[in-house]
Amino acid sequence: MNKIKLSSIFYFLSFALVAILLVSIFSYGFSIWTSYMSLHDWKGLGGIPVFIGLGNYIEFFSNSIAIRTLINTFILAISFIISTTLLGLVLAILLDIGLKGTSIFKLIFLLPLSFSFVISATMWTWMFSPFQGTINSLLRMLGLDFLTQPWITSTEQSLLCVLIVYIWQFSGFVTLIYYAGISSISKEQIDAATVDGATLFQRYFYIIIPQLKGETIGVMVILLFYALRVFDLVYLLTGGGPALSSEVLATYMYRVTFNQNLFGYGATVGFITFLIAMLIIIPFQIFFRRR
Amino acid sequence: MRFSTRSLLYVFAIIASIFYLLPMYTLVNVSLKSTEDLVYGPVVPPRQVYFGAYQEAWTQISDYFLNSVKMTLPATIISTLLGSLSGYAFFRFRSKITNIIFLLMVTGFYVPPQAILIALIKFISSIGLYGSIYGLILTHIAYGMPITTLLFRNYYESIPKEILDSSEIDGAGEWLKFIKIIFPLSLPGMAVVLTFQFTNIWNDFLFGLVLSQGRYSQPVTVAIANLKGTTLAAWNVQMAGAAIGAIPIVIFYIFGTKLIIKGLTAGAIKA
User: What is the pLDDT of residue A71?
Assistant: First the structure.
């Protein structure tokens, strides 16, 4: 194997060079460039960047809107990860139990995955509309007027609305992963427990769920990754409002960069997002590669 | 299972189904209403099914729909082919260095778009592709590389070793081997990657929003968002527009559920 080194390198590059170059430039080159530009005061694409060291970072961490955005992002991420993972697991178990019509339920649970956020946001804007929206209309038709909510028009509920749509969109994905995980657990073990008199609940709680650790870690990291990056849904559903109550890092970055023309500061927000993402992904990568 | 447990599970499954279906029902229901019918709200079915909103939406977004087709097809095909090549490279040539490069490639998938957005706009403008479909195609190809490489490398792992070894004896060159043996064997995997990429690229909004301009380059997702943003288009037209934008993916989904599922599970957990 050692003597074919040179031709190996040649062949390796002939297959992979284009891909490596593209990732080097578009993912890493651009991130590094962003980190450098984050050290500048730079107004607008045509403006001249002025080096200001860590000025933008100081601005970010002393700016109450930025901090609010950071907190919103974390609240959304954590509540999203926990609720989506739980719902996904419950639905996967429901599918696994094998009620009549399971294949239809499966199709229904997974359907939201196929829609783009633009489509989801359009649907849900109409769902949440306080006067004509589906949810409030339904409640009124059922005589439950007292349960109607202001939804996306309220500063207290806007983040909750975003959360509901996130759960709606991603729980099918979690269900899918768990369902595949449950299917790969040996049937003998489960049957043996059933023979020993384990109830349905015991079977899942003591035998199946403890074996889904790998899936759980994987799912949580992916969900976190989506929670950090997803811009479209917040931008189109609430626009980060009202009064910035649902602003997250991604929409904040967009707003300061393209609406306020603060390109250097936008780069800072982008790079902070990058650091948070890498802080989570790199240990995960190392952990999983070691298996 | 006791009757009461079973009934409870059904109730739960049905409530969950309503949660998932209600927004889609709203979309379809409102899109089939005439403007006068809209006052009866999104819950009551249309008094008479009306396709006018679709006609109106189509005249407003057809150009953008075509842009999406022109963008998605080449970007999907090229990124899949490039991924199949680089996936092969990382599968075939294992060493410490190539493994590190592979890990860096895959980690590239996790770089959030906000971290590259400004650089991307500057780069695409500097090569003269701002506001052009080609700029978007290039962008989608580049950001498709980590995941397509990963999916293909994992797929090649499942090809029996004997097939590769037997061709080594024949002394076939790497490229010849790839074209004659690996490529045909990888077609089922390729279908998964094509579906995955098609869905991602068709559904993209952010890159379309910042890199394209006007009716000659903006993808349909941006056009639908613009419909939503204006007060000019009535609700039924906005919903019809969204429904039209979702059609290619829904078709893909219905016929290729298995492929999409495979792509998602493989891409997610092994990444």
Answer: 95
